[in-house]
Amino acid sequence: MTQFDVLNKIIDSRDFTVGGGSAAALAGAMAAGLIGMVARLSIKKGYGLSKEEYTSIADKADKLSSELLEGTVKDTESFKKIKEAYAMPKETEDDKSARSLAVEKAAVGAATVPLYNGKICKWVFDLGVLLKDKSNPNAASDLEEGNLLVNAAILGCVLNIEANLPLIKDENIKEKFQQEINYLKQYSNNI
């Protein structure tokens, strides 16, 4: 599945194979693109940072955007693994045990992907902070939209981690995810 397939599935209300985790990663990718664009639009006049700093921000934003686009596909793949685990047989006690273990393993994977995407979004957030009051004022709305999108992306990642926690029985693993959730929540004013 490609990133474009994921996008088409996100916007198709009849498709249930791609959900909020992929949408959150896509929002983060768009935020990174906008923040990188604002940095590039600020290079020539220097609004408080050097040409090298603006270029570095833009290059980092481009890299993070690409990683988040890959994250849209990874999130979709991790959801498929949960569906596959639930489709396993459950006729015998051994079947039920194997199925339960597979569901939990898939849920850990499905929580790990949005956690990783959330951390990338946090880095996008940091780039937006660097440009605050130090970028081309003609692109102020683009920067603000990038900041809004990254806030939504972080929140979406948190929600998708939380959605998988009930499927995880290991309390130590759940506690580690909860610590990461608390960390990410610091970086979204919408949470």
What do these coordinates show?
- With 191 residues, the chain is mostly helical.
- The protein is built from six helices and no strands.
- α3 runs antiparallel to α4 (93-131) and α4 (93-131) packs antiparallel against α5 (140-164).
- It is elongated and about 70 Å long.
Key attributes of the depicted protein:
elongated, mainly alpha, 191 residues, 76% helix
Structural class: mainly alpha
**What is the arithmetic mean of pLDDT?**
92
What is the 3D shape?
A: elongated
Query: Count the helices. How many?
Result: 6
What's the Cα radius of gyration? 19 Å
Report the span from N to C terminus.
31 Å
Total beta strand runs: 0
Proportion of β residues?
under 5%
Tell me about the biggest sheet?
Answer: none
Low-pLDDT regions: none
Query: How do the helices and strands follow one another from N- to C-terminus?
Result: HHHHHH
Helix content: over 70%
Quick summary:
This protein has helices at 3-10, 20-41, 51-86, 93-131, 140-164, 171-185. It has 191 residues and is an all-alpha fold.
Walk me through the topology.
Elements: H1 3-10, H2 20-41, H3 51-86, H4 93-131, H5 140-164, H6 171-185
